[in-house]
Design brief:
Layout: H1 4-10, E1 16-19, H2 35-47, E2 52-54, H3 62-72, E3 79-85, H4 88-96, E4 101-107, H5 110-117, H6 121-137, E5 141-147, H7 154-167, E6 171-176, H8 183-197, E7 200-205, H9 212-221, E8 226-229, H10 243-253, H11 265-276, E9 293-294, E10 318-319, H12 327-336, H13 343-360, H14 366-378
Parallel strand pairs: 1-2, 1-8, 2-3, 3-4, 4-5, 5-6, 6-7, 7-8, 9-10
Length: 393
Amino acid sequence: MKTKNEVVDLLNKPLCVCDSTLCAGEQTAGAVFSNIEKYRIAQHLDAAGVPQIDVGMPGIGKEEKVTVKHIARMGLSASIMASCRAEVNEVNDCIDCDVDAISISLPSSDIQIKSLYEKDHEWVMDKLYEATDYAAQHGLYICCVAEDAARADLGFLIDYAKLAREAGADRFAYSDSIGIEDPFTCNDRIEMLRKIANINVEIISRDDFGMATANTVAAIKAGAKFARVTSMGIGQRAGCAPLEEVVMASKHMLGIDTGIDTTKLRTIAELVSSASGVPISPSKPIIGAKCFAQESGLAYNRSVLEPYDPAEVAMERSLVIGKHSVTNTIIAAMKEMDIEISKTDADNLLVLVRRASSQMHRSLTQSELFLLYEDMMSGNNTFDDVSDEPVEQ
């Protein structure tokens, strides 16, 4: 277990990514991680350099408590965080697990405060202070999470963040719990909170409208120094901001290096996919199998059409031969088979490729391309549409 000062030093980065795959990610409908899977995921996240891992909610049951405690005692380099509601008994459950950081959540929007608890702002502030102060007395690093912050009154959010700081919190998390935020308002609200409340801000985004990564990037641009994510973006409903997207977008769009080894992102996702039963879509940004597959365009200089080198994420470029291929694609594909082909022959072969692809309703394999090439060079009619039989009159 790290001391609070050690955690603060560990998280002292331009942008600190907190991975919640083992907590928020396991809330994916139908997903249940085994203990061994949780331990392996934690190890892989740690090996990739993720500085903080939210590993679960000890308050939900004995088995969860055992798992959280085990991970906290694995000697990982990352800070190990546990999540709970603003209840002293749940804070105690986290303390019992030997974690070095705690995430304390309470609703901040009127609709949730009234509908879920039938309470008011004063009750929220009392609960927040009580739980945060108690955790601070026990030497924990503390994050206070304002649930449903996107629908909360900004004035109340500022008061919430100020009180959290006064009670001993190290950061305030703006949680768009139902994914209704947009990047423009998110940027404005985060900037206002950070400046007025004078506390480090974390962004937690849901993806209900496909805005999780965009909102996270907007919050970072507004000064948020923390972002909570999950591998593949798994989580309740449409999921969360994906670890791989936030890390790569921060690096290439914002010029911020999170210190995470991007070559390990695909491996982490494969492990999480196996554990959760959620497949990795071929077109998934960063980690999808077809992220660097090109069927059309400048095949000789494919990097012209890519935002970054696939080697950064341990992926490789691939050529897809099909209806939308161009002559240069054919020349490059043949060259991969050590066959030099003239532009004229490539033009003629492309006609056959497009016709074959249209008839089969798919792209061609390398062996199928080679057979088309052989047929063309030998004068065989691949499509068998010329007959030697006389036409009946």
